[in-house]
Automatic annotation (TrEMBL):
Residues 8-116 form the Thiamine pyrophosphate enzyme N-terminal TPP-binding domain. This is 2-succinyl-5-enolpyruvyl-6-hydroxy-3-cyclohexene-1-carboxylate synthase. Keywords: Magnesium, Manganese, Menaquinone biosynthesis, Metal-binding, Thiamine pyrophosphate, Transferase. Residues 394-536 form the Thiamine pyrophosphate enzyme TPP-binding domain.
Amino acid sequence: MMTSVLHAQQIIQLFKKRDIKNIIISPGSRNAPLTISFSQDSFFNCYSIVDERCAGHFAMGIAQQLQEPTVLLCTSGSALLNYYPAVAEAYYSEIPLIVLSADRPPHKIDIGDGQTIRQKHVFANHILFDTQLEMITRSDQKEYLITNERQLNKAINTAISKHGPVHINVPFEEPLYNTVEQPSMDVKVMDVLKDETTEIPAAFYENWNNSKRKLVILSTLNPPVFEKEDIDRLTADGSVLVMSEVSSNIVHENIVWGIDTLIAPIEFDDDQIAALQPDMVVTIGGMIVSKKIKQYLRRFETNIHYHIGKRRAYDTFFKLAAHIKIAPRKWLHSLPVQTQPSTYQEQWLHHFKDYLSKRPAYFEKIGWSDMKVFELLFEHLPDDIVLQLGNSSTIRYAQLFKMNATHRIFSNRGTSGIDGCTSTAIGAAVGSGMPTVLITGDLSFFYDSNGLWNNYIPKNFKIILINNSGGGIFRILPGEKQEVYFSTYFETTHHLDASHLCAMHGFGYTKIDEEFAFAKAYQQFIHTNTAPQLLEIQTPREINDKILLDYFKFLR
């Protein structure tokens, strides 16, 4: 059974031919032709998520894991606007989403009809492609059929080839609920785009061969693009220093995996920081988390920065020479054998390992705090999980600890917002089918609490909520911390816990507020898989910033 509406049939038919299966539907009546057709066809995996804000991030989590387009479907009006945070995140994180929005017919826009806004081009600043389909009332309207066919194909091809969100606005006139047993027309697959390759310019090799200090930064890489032997090959060149971020999913003994741990001790030492200055920089991956490395590289006079990879390039350091759109492994295996003698890598790996050797002494003396919790977590997290990291403090603390090579690590670093972290993690758990753990902060968790309003949460899904009763990251930033306005409008202190939310949504719940209770609570939390679990870890509000900043002072 499917809708009798012809342009809706075109969507259903083409999605099936392109093997686009995962459909996240939010309730409404204007989208009934598509809702009926998707939900009554066993080819599609349909999910019902009431809150469009959560639905958008849930869809993004599935697409993030499967690396294929996931579809969002909503009714007309403000429902569509609630997708915007997820659309913006997908745009900057380069995750393929197809947004289908039902709409009133064009002649009913801005005449006072209910649940009607200007939906056409509503995501104009953060969308790779958008279109509005023609309404088709008769099967002999061949011109409209062909126009829609072309637009639908272009939308799908764009989402796949350019790795990001597209928007298809679909106007419907009543009646909305009429159905037929068979589609009234066929639809063609058009212009499936092929992978493009770009040659590496000669100037790159010239700069590479002439540089004694080459810095390679690996940021967000989902999924990882290098094997161990690739990094072996890259680090065999003594003039190459590799720095990686937690979201790179790269673990190797000859790379600097804690960028801030290396830079913080020398950032105010002009001679030392100058010695680290590279002759050229190569970036691979998405958005860079470390503020220290961005500020540091912007200070240099060199203008030789190359970005490698087929995804988008950003002039993060204001020095981008070229974007080489080639697969990173192909780039790596095209590199010449080392031609310049250099101790650049050896020197800075020595510094990094020296700082690491000092860390145990610091961790032994700190009390119960955010940093102590992260130390415990990264010692005890199980192998072979999808690890989702919340934004703000969570991802920054995670950068200070060596990652487990069996983990697949993700974070919403496109717009770096706290909205949608829980919903994305749940979508990722559904999409991957793997045990999934979300580590998140209290503001992020409570902001996205509707993410728990979801009937598809796997029983082995787990949330570690670090609750320091406010936006702890703001205590690390400059500003007077004792003023009333700070705690009210920046830190936004509160006295909430997650116990009632967990009871309402069927999560197992445990709360601890001291190190002595951690081991027993954690073991029970990690090994209970009869229902989703949440471990709430309460930490002191006013000492976390001092312990973190003192860590960097200690290394100096």
